[in-house]
Amino acid sequence: MPQKKPLSSSPINAREFDQLIRLFGLLEAEPLVAVGVSGGADSLCLVLLLDSWLRRRRGRAVALIVDHQLRPEAKREIQQLVGWLANYSIEYHVLVWSDEKLGRTSQAAAREARYELLTGWCRRAGVLHLALAHHRDDQAETHLLRKARGSGADGLAAMPIVWEHNNVRLLRPLLSVPGTRLRATLLCMHQRWVEDPSNDDPTYGRTHVRRKLAKLSEENKGAAHIATVASDYASVRGGADEVTALLLVRVTQIDPAGFCWLDQMLLAEAPTKVGLRALTQILLAIGGNKYGARRESLLLLYEALRKNQIAGGRTLGGCCITPSRNGILICREPAAADHVLSLLPGQWSLWDHRFHVALGRCCVGGRRQFKVHRLGVNGWCAVKRKRSGVNERTLPLFVRYCLPALWDLDGLVAVPHLDYSRDDSFGGGQQPFTANFRPRRAFAAPPFQGVNSLVPVTGNTK
Question: Which helix (DSSP H) or strand (DSSP E) does residue 66 occupy?
Answer without folding.
Answer: strand 60-67
